[in-house]
Specification:
The protein has about 170 residues and is mainly alpha-helical. The chain is built from 6 helices and no strands.
Length: about 170
């Protein structure tokens, strides 16, 4: 028997990659559509969850039960929730438009990835896999999912009336 990844988490990560490709604005400088904005929030949450899960997987020790998988998944979800709350608090402070649905989409993206990370680790840890071995691919995929979010954020800042204008930044 080979030590292959279970198909469900792999499909989850592939689906997120497909969503990441659809989230970017079609043309540089074009504003994101409203549904694309929610998708970008979900991708940001997924990215934060993957990065948080990767860091935690590298730091925690291996155990024989699902404790490691649970710890990694909770850390990922906590990272997404922290990112979403921080962003909405900054919006409340005048740096943007606060919206509860943005927070919900960010946390939902983190929840999907955290569930995938839990399923992945719960299936691999009993086989003797050290969770730290999964840390580099989780971290790399987290950075990849952040790319469309960073692209859209930069495009919004370069538009007249974007966030830099609202808070008195120079353009």
């Amino acid at each position: 028997m080979t030590d292959r990844l279970p198909p469900r988490p792999l499909l989850t990560f592939l689906l997120l990659a497909l969503l990441a490709a659809r989230a970017s604005p079609e043309e540089p400088g074009s504003p994101a559509r409203p549904q694309s904005d929610k998708l970008l929030h979900a991708l940001a949450g997924a990215s934060a969850a993957l990065i948080g899960a990767a860091i935690t997987a590298a730091a925690v020790g291996r155990s024989d039960d699902c404790e490691t998988a649970t710890t990694v998944a909770v850390a990922g979800l906590g990272s997404a929730a922290f990112l979403g709350l921080t962003k909405e608090l900054l919006d409340l402070a005048g740096l943007g438009d606060p919206e509860l649905l943005d927070l919900a989409c960010t946390i939902l993206g983190g929840l999907v990835v955290s569930a995938g990370a839990y399923a992945l680790l719960a299936g691999q840890v009993p086989r003797g896999l050290d969770p730290a071995e999964l840390s580099p691919p989780l971290l790399a995929f987290g950075f990849v999912l952040a790319l469309p979010v960073a692209h859209a954020w930069r495009a919004s800042r370069s538009q007249p009336g974007g966030p830099a204008r609202r808070v008195g930044g120079r353009r």
